[in-house]
Amino acid sequence: MLQRDSLWVGFLAALIFPAAAWFGLNYMSDTMVGKTILGIDFSGFSESFIVTMAVCANFFPFFVYMHTRKDDAMRGVGLITMVLAVLVAVLYFL
């Protein structure tokens, strides 16, 4: 389904990838708290870092759609990525 060239497919991909990245980073941060990495105690990732990296996960589907020339899906990913980036900037950095 994610191979079709449609704006809605781009919207869907742009919501799935950040959600998966957020879940993965949050899980990794929670399971590694208190462990020693290179002699330094790991205290976990900040919430703003996790959310920012989750939004950056949209670069993967964006570049895949750009390489395969699926312009409508690429526009959908770009639009949702811009909306998410503005939300992150407003909520965490302003």
What is this entry, summarized?
The protein has 94 residues and is mostly helical.
What this model shows, in words?
It is a single chain. The protein is mostly helical and 94 residues long. It has one domain (7-88). The protein is built from 4 helices and 2 strands. Strands 1-2 form a two-stranded antiparallel ribbon. Helix 1 (7-32) packs across helix 4 (71-92), helix 2 runs antiparallel to helix 4 (71-92) and helix 3 runs antiparallel to helix 4 (71-92). The radius of gyration is 16 Å and the shape is elongated.
- How would you classify the helix and strand content by structural class? mainly alpha
For the sheet with most strands, the description reads: 2 strands, antiparallel
- Total discrete domains: 1
Please tally the β strands and state the result.
2
Shape: elongated
Kindly state the mean pLDDT as a whole number? 91
SSE arrangement:
Elements: H1 7-32, E1 36-37, E2 40-41, H2 47-56, H3 59-67, H4 71-92
Antiparallel strand pairs: 1-2
Helix pairs in contact: 1-2, 1-4, 2-4, 3-4
List key phrases describing it.
94 residues; mainly alpha; single chain; two-stranded antiparallel ribbon
